Amino acid sequence: MAGAAVMAFPVASLVRRDTPAEYTVPPFPSLFWPPQDGTVILYELDDMWKFTLYWTLILYGLFHLGAVGVAVLMQGGKRSSSWKYLWLVPLVYALIAAVEGLLAGTLVGLISYNAGSTHADKPSSSGSDSPNFSPDDPSLYLPHQPKSLSGIAIRSFCLGIALTLGLIGTLTIYFYTSSPLWRLPFFLTALALFHFLEFWTTAAYNTRAAEVSSFLLTSNWPAYAIAHSFATLECLLTHLLWPGARWAPFGLGPALMLAGWVLVVLGQTVRSVAMVHAGRSFNHLVQYRRQSGHVLVTTGIYGVLRHPSYFGFFWWALGTQMVMGNVVSFVGYAVVLWRFFSSRIQYEEELLVAFFGEDYISYRRRVRTLIPLVP
């Protein structure tokens, strides 16, 4: 947490390496407060992520060494068997800090570096598949723009923090207490990983389409936030008010819990693999006209599942509610998601038939969605 200031606004603007300018890391204060007068600061990508990682490691190390020191003082310096692995604490947090530093320091350069260096020097087969995209226009990457690098950096950092806190909270509560409330940080972990992977897969495999909105943090707002908030409250209140209640009949709780974990892992994996395999043919938004680079993908995961990304999210979401033991939210998620995906698939497939004709009709006949009541 102490490294948040360094990571929050690490970049005012990243530009292509071949930009005719002198690349230098600016003075330390300007990393905290980028200029507000529209000035474009040029950063060297390698220096930027190294700088970010360097200061993050220092601040995390100091913060947690201080925390360990306070803990030792509170124990009065007494040695016990429970302290013999205390040296692992700063090591674990150093590793966590390293991962977060790498994420925030290098991820912010994916769009500008990949899109600018890889795509700018060769003609695009898709023509105008992204009318807002111009790798030579640095203003697109400034704050409050669709591809804002500062926006991407802060979201990546916050998701990294959420993932770390959620994972530590889940493991700590599960292994060191008898409380069932480990489910709450588990949900935070699952959400943080999901939203990070939504952006990362887009940035890595469909770079031109990657924007701040690719995190899907405000997708279907506010219904999306309300659903997750309700699920969190249901889990919290259920286990606080009825701590000994058995939500699963016939002693099926452990089996349903295991099934939930399987669905979470399976759903996330299938969705991410689908986005990777589709590449530039994948888009978070329904496409109303066929782009020149849009092809019908029927191989790989798409040869097993029709709309595998929808399959993945549907079962991932239901799996999270099974793990949390949420009966009401499970039913609510199932109904809402089924209605959403059934109508969206029907509408989207009308467009796909118009795009690909008999090829898509034949594909639809032989490959299922594996979403209940959606053929």
How do the strands and helices of this protein lay out in sequence?
Blueprint: H1 4-8, H2 28-32, H3 45-74, H4 88-107, H5 110-119, H6 149-176, H7 183-205, H8 223-241, H9 253-278, H10 308-324, H11 327-356, H12 358-366
Helix pairs in contact: 3-4, 4-6, 6-7, 7-9, 8-11, 9-10, 10-11, 11-12
Quickly describe the structure:
Helices cover 59% and strands 0% of the residues.
Compute the CA-based radius of gyration.
Answer: 23 Å
Tally of domains: 2
How large is the share of residues in beta strands?
Answer: under 5%
Task: Kindly report the average pLDDT value.
Answer: 76
What would you say this structure looks like, in words?
The chain has 375 residues and is mainly alpha-helical. It folds into two domains: 1-117 and 134-217, no CATH class; 219-375, Four Helix Bundle (Hemerythrin (Met), subunit A) (Up-down Bundle), CATH 1.20.120.1630. Helices cover 59% and strands 0% of the residues. The chain is built from twelve helices and no strands. The chain has helices at 4-8, 28-32, 45-74, 88-107, 110-119, 149-176, 183-205, 223-241, 253-278, 308-324, 327-356, 358-366. It is globular. The N and C termini lie far apart (47 Å). Residues 1-46 and 111-133 have low confidence and may be disordered.
